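User: Run a structure prediction on this.
Assistant: Running it now.
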Amino acid sequence: MEYEAIIGLEVHAQLLTESKIFCGCSTKYGSPPNSQTCPVCLGMPGVLPVLNKKAVEYTIKMVLAVEGRVKEKSVFARKNYFYPDLPKGYQISQYDQPLACGGFIEIDLPDGRKKKIKITRIHLEEDAGKSMHIENEDTKTLMDMNRCGIPLIEIVSQPDLSSPEEAYLYLGKLKQILMYLRICAGNMEEGNLRCDANVSVRPKGEKGFGTSTEVKNMNSFKGVEKALEYEIQKQIRILESGGKIEHETLLWDEKKEKVFSMRAKEESHDYRYFPEPDLVRLVINQGWIEKIRKTMPELPDQRENRFIKEYNLPEYDAGVLTSSKDLADWYEEGLKYYPNPKILSNWVMGEVLRELKERRVEIRDLRMKPKDLAELLKLIDDKTISGKIAKDVFKEMAETGLLMHTQKKAEEIVKKKGLVQVTDKAQIEIVVGKVLSENQGSVKEYLAGKKKLFGFFVGEVMKKAKGKANPKMVNEILKEKLKIGDA
């Protein structure tokens, strides 16, 4: 029997506010354990939470970005459960009256089709603390309460995803939107972005849903994809052997690449939700929404389409360049100094991204400015250096900017190393003559019809000229010497 998967994702995104959702404690990552706490986020008796307005504003931005509906009135609720890292014994979240509902995220499928993944709800809540288990110590667990009260938005999708690959694409698009809005750092390793997946399988063509399981503890997009692949195959094996899927919460073990049962899946009534008595109803008027709408940046899809139309770029180029807001900004800044969209695109997608990948840094870490790259490209255009030499110059520019913190300019490197391109015909003719005389056998083969050897001659000339000979002139002189010119 052929089966199909039904997947819904619950994504928690940490908002980039400077203070927590209900108190003034800092949200800075990496501070000493328990150094960013106060009676409010520690849940001491008699304290009162005060809602962070910036957290609400950021949530509204996300809702507008996915074309959802901000509700005029929403209510915070107490979600009651006991964890050692939840000192109050409950989490302030939203339940039956969330801040927003509806909307969608559109993903690009590998076959070229687009698919809309609908959003059920987006709501605000606070994070719990963090349990730390000491290695080789089974009896001790340490608690860091710095995360208590960190503002989160929970984005719940409808079960519209039908494969682990689609889940991966959805998460990538979601992260991209959050980072374009500058409301989330998007770093899963630091807990900025967390994902729980609800997954079930059913015989292909059936309309009803199978029993779902919830998979937690996935700390990368690839981890989500692998965990879903594992769980889908496991559920299919159980059904085909006549077994029954249990409605449970599972943990993904990254090292063993397996899921393990954590507990029976809770239902909403298990949390005994009731309205938070210390917070008034949240009322959002249309005027505030429209004010926020005016601050919205150009979103990824909009920017990609503009790059295609305005700069006449291929769809692939536009997709790569707009994959992050910082990269798109860097590219557009470069166009101010070098208004050739396609050549600049080739260099950004090639040399710039290669350098960033090799050094495992972001574009914002690169001291080289778009203007510096533009000056390098102008040296190619005016035939001061060749394209091959330019790549070596670029590498040194990037290296000095990242490692030595003293960004060298292209012209400075070219002059210091004597890399100026040779355009003197007489000089190039001498080098060509030497190459042909040293390779008489290859010349005879070429003249006998082995035309592919022309590339060999070009390479040998460039090697002898240390890459400084003008490539166009090298080609022309070789054709002339080998008697295959226009005559």
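The first helix runs from residue 53 to 65.
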